[in-house]
Amino acid sequence: MGILDSLKNSGVFKGVLGQLESAVIPVVLSEVLGNGGQGGGLSAIVAKLEQAGLGDQVKSWIGTGQNLPITAQQLQQVLGSDTVKQLAARFGIPVDQLAQVLAQQLPTAIDHASPNGRLPHTA
């Protein structure tokens, strides 16, 4: 079951997902995590989060326990308002809504990318 499937089944984001195309969230996460090229990959976003003082959250996502939350504001500060604005404009999503969805999904995405409690070597 993918991230979108779990979101649809959870009911938490039904309103948000109703407004977003089903392919938008994975594409945005891919760009944020750097899978598409310039972002530097998973290791880069993890390093940015840790440098911003969010190391405890990151460790919880990579580890095997419960994921600690991150706020939309914290994530927007780490990624940079310009980056979030550009992504929101590209996909036609309000900035605050995109930041909120990313804040909810980034922990899960990083958690899934580190199933054994470690980042993959290619991250």
Please characterize this protein's 3D structure:
The protein starts with a helix and ends in a 10-residue tail after the last helix. Helix 6 crosses helix 8. It has 123 residues and is mainly alpha-helical. The chain is globular. 25% of the residues are buried. It contains eight helices and no strands. The chain has a single domain, classed as Orthogonal Bundle (Arc Repressor Mutant, subunit A), CATH 1.10.10.690.
Summarize the structure.
The chain is mostly helical. Helices cover 66% and strands 0% of the residues. The chain has a single domain (22-113), classed as Arc Repressor Mutant, subunit A (Orthogonal Bundle).
Could you say what the CATH architecture is? Orthogonal Bundle
Series of H and E elements:
HHHHHHHH
Q: In percent, how much strand structure appears in the residues?
A: under 5%
The rough form would be described as globular
Q: Low-confidence segments, ≥5 residues, pLDDT <50?
A: none
Main β-sheet description: none
The end-to-end span amounts to 22 Å
Count of helices? 8
User: According to CATH, what is the topology?
Assistant: Arc Repressor Mutant, subunit A
Bin the helical content: 55-70%
- What would you report as the Rg, rounded to the nearest angstrom? 14 Å
Mean pLDDT: 76
CATH homologous superfamily name? YidB-like
CATH class term: Mainly Alpha
